[in-house]
TrEMBL record:
Family: Belongs to the iron/ascorbate-dependent oxidoreductase family.
Protein name: Clavaminate synthase-like protein
Cleavable signal peptide: none
One Pfam family this sequence matches: 2OG-FeII_Oxy
UniProt record, GO biological process: small molecule biosynthetic process
GO molecular function (one): metal ion binding
SUPFAM superfamilies recorded: Clavaminate synthase-like (SSF51197)
Domain of life: Eukaryota
Keywords attached to this entry: Iron, Metal-binding, Oxidoreductase
Annotated ranges, domain Fe2OG dioxygenase: 206-313
């Protein structure tokens, strides 16, 4: 959630973060295209190598990106485009249905499931977010590594896929997508461990049964002659996760706030994914890895689909500063010593209730 304070050529954006309200001066100039190298493109093929030196080389690039703007593209990640495209197509089929059909997987708890148009306002000082989403969270049954049965007796209930039977391709496409993203995210966290001068397996046990989710975001197209006061989009925010892996279709829309306070467009690069640092990673690294402010804004009349994958520490893992970070006092007192599950619930509620951000 964020509030704004205006001046003639800029305004101050106050955004809730892992440390409470943070303020950024934002230029009023229109969003611009990212300059070459401004959002680094990292070839991560070396992280699959048996040679430690090659994995360390990737880690060095990741460290530079994470201590800069906290956003970077990854290429040569070994996830076939066909897996992503299948889910994107199934997503469109789902969102093109009637509201009655989509509401079959709408739940009061809002932890996951379908959320309709104009139902969210992530930034309370901005307009209602114009998009729909379907969020489905981690189950051991979807994890290619975990062998838990995924039943209610192990603390997990299966998603009611039978309620999405009108889009028969959705379940298969989603599960395949989730499994491949989970494997990739765990590999990237090994690289991030190296980037933090930690043992390569530092995060392995901490994300064995992670807080993870895939969200299918749908930004509706604009019909000819239709008038809108605001374009389809999602307001200024930071992510709560350790890291986020984002796929966006060719409509684009991701905008990142640069250190100079300009909104820059991170346009889609074929075959790439966008990786960004989340608040949980910023928290445990004492601010060394930066969770930056970003938003989504559509341009033109075309509909947009984006699919972020979020991964965080397992719910029962304690929040604690990693030993190689040299600012031990940076962990917010409200969060120190609590579990990652409690931390995430508190962050979600703080933003929903607007507890942290205050105008100046």
């Amino acid at each position: 959630m964020a509030t704004t304070t205006a001046t003639e050529n800029s305004f101050v954006l106050h955004v809730d973060s892992a440390y409470g309200p943070i303020s950024r001066t934002v230029q009023k100039s229109p969003p611009r295209d990212a300059q070459p190298g401004e959002v680094p493109v990292i070839d991560v093929s070396g992280m699959f190598s048996d040679e430690l030196s090659k994995r360390q080389a990737v880690a060095a690039e990741v460290r530079k990106a994470c201590t800069g703007m906290g956003f970077f593209y990854i290429i040569n990640h070994k996830v076939p485009d066909s897996i992503t495209e299948a889910l994107a197509e199934a997503s469109r089929d789902f969102f093109h249905q009637s509201i009655e059909e989509k509401n079959k997987v709408s739940f009061e708890h809002q932890i996951e499931g379908y959320q309709g148009l104009n139902q969210e306002q992530i930034n309370k000082s901005e307009s209602i977010d114009v998009f729909e989403k379907l969020k489905i969270t981690y189950r051991p049954s979807m994890d290619p590594v975990s062998k838990l049965d995924g039943s209610s007796t192990s603390g997990y209930q299966e998603f009611p896929w039978e309620k999405t039977a009108s889009v028969p391709s959705l379940e298969v496409a989603y599960k395949k997508f989730f499994a491949t993203r989970l494997v990739l995210a765990r590999q990237l966290l090994q690289i991030m461990a190296l980037a933090l001068d930690l043992p390569e397996d530092y995060f392995d046990a901490k994300v064995a049964q992670p807080q993870a989710a895939v969200t299918l975001n749908y930004y509706p197209g604009k019909a000819e002659g239709e008038e809108r006061t605001e374009p389809a989009g999602l307001g200024s925010h930071t992510d709560f996760s350790l890291i986020t892996l984002l796929w966006q279709d060719d409509a684009g829309g991701l905008q990142i706030l640069s250190p100079e306070g300009e909104w820059i467009k991170a346009k889609p690069i074929p075959g790439s994914l966008v990786c960004n640092v989340g608040d949980m990673m910023t928290m445990i690294t004492g601010g060394k890895f930066i969770s930056d402010i970003h938003r989504a804004k559509t341009e033109g009349t075309k509909e947009r689909v984006s699919i972020p994958f979020f991964i965080g520490l397992a719910p029962k893992v304690n929040i604690e500063l990693v030993k190689t970070c040299d600012e031990p006092n940076r962990i917010k007192e409200d969060y120190e010593g609590i579990t990652a599950g409690d931390w995430l619930r508190k962050r979600v509620m703080d933003v929903k209730l607007g507890k942290l951000a205050k105008a100046t």
